[in-house]
Structure formats: C-alpha cells, structure tokens
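FW: tagging you since you asked about this chain on Friday. Here's the raw sequence from the shared folder, copied in full. Didn't touch anything.
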Amino acid sequence: MTIPGEIREPFARLFGEMRPKLHRYCARMTGSAIDGEDVLQEALAKGFEALPDAGPIANPEGWLFRIAHNAALDFLRRRARERAFSDEDPDMIVDPANPTADRQAAAASLHTFMRLPVAQRSSVIMMDVLGYSLQEISDMLDTSIPAIKAALHRGRGRLRHLADEPDDRPVPKLSAAERLLLNAYIDRFNARDFDAVRDMLAEEVRLELVARTRLNGRKEVGTYFGNYSRVQDWRFVPGFAEDRPAILVRDPNDPKAPPAYFILLAWQDGKLLTIRDFRHARYAAESAQLLVL
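HL: got it, structure written out here
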C-alpha cells in the first residue's frame, strides 16, 4: 500500500530526528553499536510498513520506541539471549530522579548492559540514559509502572556491582593478512590514490553508507570515492570497532580528538567485498568501543 505524502513526510522527519536516540537504546539493548544499527534499520522499516494501517497515532515517538523495543527483543531471541521480564516485587520503591544512577548508566559500556536481564536493561536505558519518565516507559513498553520500578531497582543495583569489576576481555588482534589488507587500503585512501583503491574492489562489491544509501558493484561504488575526494575532513587510521577490524576516521585538524566515525570492511580472496561507512551515522561512534592501533 502506498503511503500518502502528507503522512509519510512527517514520519520520515520524525524517524530522522529520532534516529540517534533510538540507536542509543538499540545499541545498549543488543550490546553493540553495530548490531544496534541493524536493529534500528529493521525498526524503521517496520514503522514505515505499519503506517498505512496504523490509524491516528497519538504519541508517534512512543509508537516508534515500542517498535524499536520489539525489534531489539526479536534480535535477542534470534541470538538466544533473551530473558523475559521476571516477577519483581511490585511494591519496590524507586526514586525516578537519581543523578547517581544516571551517571552510572551513562558511563556503563555496552558490554556491561548486556549483563543485565532484558527487563532491567530496557528500564535503565529508558530512564537513566534517555531520560523518560515512568509513565512514558510504561506506555512505550506496555509494562506496568510497579514492574518498571522493580526492574530499575534491580538493574541499578547490578550496574553498581558491575562497575567495580575489572574488564578482563582479551584485547582484539589482527592477523597478518588482515593487517596487510587494511593498511594497504588506508595508505592508498590517505594518499588520495583512489584509482589504486578501486583496484582493490571485488566485482560484486557492496557499499552501505549508513543512514543514506546502498550501492552495488564496482561501477556504482566507484562514485563513493569521488565524494571523499571532494572533502578534507578525514584521515583514516587502523583500529577496532567492538573487536571488529575497522577504519577509524579522525579530524586531520584535531588529531587528539576521538574518532568521529568508523568504517567496516570485509574481504574475500584478497578483494574488498563490503564497505559499511558510518560517516552519516556518527551517533554510532558515541556508543561503540573504538580502539586505535
């Protein structure tokens, strides 16, 4: 069914405005800024698909968050990690305005959030990271306020405990072959030798310019490099984004600043098969754990 322009356009604007906030939620629910973007895209697609039959939507923001929440749960089910809302004590008292809890939640890594049960995770994210009220969370997640209070109480306590534990995960490493390919791509890109970069592409290369467009094949993807040749606000360095080999993009005029965004590459038989560029989705870098090599 075709969506009338007078309906589609306001929601397209809303989706664009809400995208960073929705990503913060999805990233923390899935434990990954990259997986969170996948869930976000799925949620936005489901939102557009549901529009023709949705009727009047009194609270579009809440409606969209509920779709994102359900998409995140579907993702977790697919990973077989979901835990259902537990039967918490409905009389548990939670102070909605809790600056200490806010600071703890804001500082918690995506990995730490994944150690909370789903109910606790979603409630803490909605209140302490995104700043929604108990009533708003209840409406969005279709859950009772006492259950949300209980989940907040348990989740905040768990976060306090986890904050004192060391992060003993191993530091990611690149294989010699991965390092060689990544460094060759970065060196050619930084030298603006885009013809040499194009020589690295597989015939069936696919590009996702996140939040903007998708291109397929060497000819289409070749236009992407032309766009980079016209701007000066980037310098590539090798690194990791959430344990995945990545290009981290820095501002050449401010080398001490954290990476502004990242790019993921995948190779096949020594040729570049996929490019996933977050230049227009810089909100992802705010949540992702980035490590410069």
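FW: The chain has two domains: 5-163, 176-292.
HL: agreed, and The CA atoms of residues 84 and 118 lie 7 Å apart.
FW: great, closing this out.
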